[in-house]
Specification:
mainly alpha; 156 residues; 2 helices
Length: 156
């Protein structure tokens, strides 16, 4: 009977120890579950923050695209105006070349056929020089406009 009592006592102690260990295990499991929930919430918050940052980045990129499109549209409009100015300058240059040729022909004809006086001859030469300067200025303007038109589309 004594052995039975000892065995019962050992069983009771083992049951108490088992109950304590089960309680400790339940506490550890509860703590782990709380940690998992906290980690999940932290990860969820981090994902929300990353999503917010990505959304802001997309919005900023979209805004930059809109600005670039507006700049491109303005550049194309400016280029069209520059091309129109270039055509007008080219027409002026062609007209100036024609006028210069006509003036040169008149001068040569007048010098040869009429035997102009020296002062009249000098006057016509000055007029011819003035027209040459206008032609040079128009040519330079056309050249600058042409360079600007070519460079403009690459810069913007």
């Amino acid at each position: 009977q004594r052995r039975l009592q000892e065995a019962c006592g050992a069983l009771a102690r083992a049951q108490d120890e088992l109950a304590e260990r089960e309680a400790a295990l339940a506490a550890v499991q509860a703590e782990l579950e709380a940690q998992r929930k906290a980690a999940a919430e932290t990860a969820s918050e981090a994902r929300r923050a990353a999503l917010g940052a990505a959304t802001a980045g997309v919005a900023a990129a979209n805004e930059r695209c809109k600005e670039a499109a507006a700049n491109l549209e303005r550049s194309m409009s400016d280029l069209a105006v520059t091309q129109t100015e270039l055509r007008a300058a080219r027409a002026q240059l062609t007209q100036a070349v024609d006028e210069l040729g006509d003036a040169r022909g008149r001068l040569e004809a007048v010098e040869g056929e009429l035997g102009l006086t020296r002062s009249e001859n000098e006057l016509l030469k000055r007029e011819l020089d003035r027209m040459r300067k206008q032609l040079d200025a128009s040519s330079q303007q056309l050249s600058r406009a042409s360079v600007a038109a070519r460079g403009y589309s690459y810069d913007d």
